[in-house]
């Protein structure tokens, strides 16, 4: 999977909130901002078509979508969902975090009508993060050229969930997208680390001034 980085249109909505949130649009920037190690799920160990709805793909992190089953899809092993909500223009993916992580990151994939061509979206998608104090932060994400779009955040309040609301094409249908390379890091102070589940394909990343390790 290509990892060419593209420009994002980011806006923070409702910044009058208790959580202090920093947003990063490159993996290198996010890695430099976190402390300790990150845990990665790139879905490469799952068979195509595996339904991961409600499965803990990272410690305490489960996925769902109003489209239907969240499945491993394509040769690049991303997660994708199909369903009528996309035609209705209200499609979203959601992640619930049961453990108090302060940092999370993801790639948004297939954000275009034709691969390697400019996005045909008529508006921005919205990536919303909810925090344990009840506050939220919303990021408007513009389409690009089909390359995965990286977004990572670091907060001083534990993240409880995030939701990716897809952008719209002409006719108010959603522009198809998927998720990949989910990452979590930085358990909140006073909470103990849990061992990685043996059934998951997770990579512990050494952080600092390291080159990006990208799945091809």
What does this structure look like?
By secondary structure, the chain is mostly beta strands. It has one domain: Jelly Rolls (Sandwich), CATH 2.60.120.260. The protein contains 2 helices and 15 strands. Strand 4 (56-58) and strand 5 form a beta hairpin. It is globular. Residues 1-17 and 192-216 have low confidence and may be disordered.
Question: What's the count of strands?
Answer: 15
**DSSP summary: helix tally:** 2
So, CATH architecture?
Answer: Sandwich
Biggest β-sheet: count, sense, barrel?
7 strands, antiparallel
Beta-strand share of residues: 35-45%
Structural class: mainly beta
How is the CATH topology named?
A: Jelly Rolls
Number of domains: 1
Low-pLDDT segments: 1-17, 192-216
Measured as a percent range, the helix fraction is under 10%
Tell me the overall shape.
globular
**Cα distance spanning the termini:** 5 Å
CATH class: Mainly Beta
Please write the string of helix (H) and strand (E) elements. Answer: EEHEEEEEHEEEEEEEE
Tell me the strand order in the biggest sheet.
Answer: 1-11-10-13-8-5-4
- Find the CATH superfamily: Galactose-binding domain-like
Key terms for this structure?
disordered N terminus; mainly beta; Jelly Rolls; 6-stranded antiparallel β-sheet; 216 residues; 7-stranded antiparallel β-sheet
Topology at a glance:
Layout: E1 12-13, E2 21-24, H1 27-33, E3 38-41, E4 56-58, E5 61-65, E6 71-73, E7 78-80, H2 85-88, E8 92-97, E9 101-109, E10 125-131, E11 136-141, E12 149-155, E13 159-165, E14 178-187, E15 202-205
Antiparallel strand pairs: 1-11, 2-12, 3-14, 3-15, 4-5, 5-8, 6-7, 8-13, 9-12, 9-14, 10-11, 10-13
């Amino acid at each position: 999977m290509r990892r060419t980085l593209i420009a994002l249109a980011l806006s923070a909505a409702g910044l009058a909130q208790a959580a202090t949130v920093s947003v990063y649009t490159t993996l290198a920037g996010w890695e430099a901002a976190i402390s300790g190690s990150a845990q990665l799920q790139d879905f490469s160990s799952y068979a195509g078509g595996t339904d991961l709805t409600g499965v803990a793909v990272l410690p305490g992190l489960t996925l769902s979508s109003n489209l239907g089953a969240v499945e491993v899809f394509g040769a690049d092993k991303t997660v994708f969902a199909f369903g009528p909500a996309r035609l209705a223009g209200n499609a979203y993916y959601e992640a619930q975090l049961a453990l108090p992580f302060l940092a999370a990151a993801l790639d948004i994939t297939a954000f275009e009508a034709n691969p390697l061509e400019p996005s045909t979206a008529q508006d921005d998608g919205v990536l919303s993060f909810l925090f344990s104090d009840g506050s939220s932060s919303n990021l408007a994400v513009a389409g690009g050229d089909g390359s995965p779009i990286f977004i990572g955040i670091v907060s001083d309040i534990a993240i409880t969930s995030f939701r990716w609301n897809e952008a719209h094409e002409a006719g108010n249908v959603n522009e198809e997208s998927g998720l990949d390379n989910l990452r979590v890091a930085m358990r909140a102070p006073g909470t103990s680390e849990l061992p990685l589940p043996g059934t998951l394909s997770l990579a512990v990343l050494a952080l600092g001034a390291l080159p990006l390790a990208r799945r091809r």
